[in-house]
Amino acid sequence: MYHKIVTYGDSGLRIPSQSLTIDNHADKLIQSLFDTLSQQRGIGLAAPQIGVNQRVFIIDTTLQAKEDKSIEKFQAAYVNPEIMWFSKKENSFNEGCLSIPTIYENVVRPSSIRVRYLDASFKETEETLHGIKARIFQHEYDHLEGILFIDHIYFLRKALLSYKLKKMQNNLIKHTAL
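-> structure tokens emitted (178 positions)
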């Protein structure tokens, strides 16, 4: 089932998410995330982005791997994830977000991370992620903590974006009032 993406200005994007249990209809939520992500042509999507305050996100690079052969194809769900370790080495990458359309900024993040999570079958998994997979994981994990990628950009750069962000927020308020 496809869901509308929650956009910047919605307070739900800033609330830390609650743990997901198997009896919270996890399978339906995960399928909804995949359906919505496919419709939006993105690479990652967290439950708060569809208005669900649960600790689950998905990554699916299928479409991007078809367009860019340097991108590894992978698809997975991450339930109740934790980041246990960050590498000291960092890299910068131009990020965007389905919840903040039209804005792309360079974000510095650790290049490798060690994570623990439950997969879609609720089997515990622990692994070290590198490169694009680590970056997407961190971006989506931030959504579960109520953090947006724009919170990681330099203050001056964010100040320059403030007009666009305020306009996005005002549009949300206008549409909500209708």
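The helical segments are 26-40, 62-67, 131-144, 155-177.
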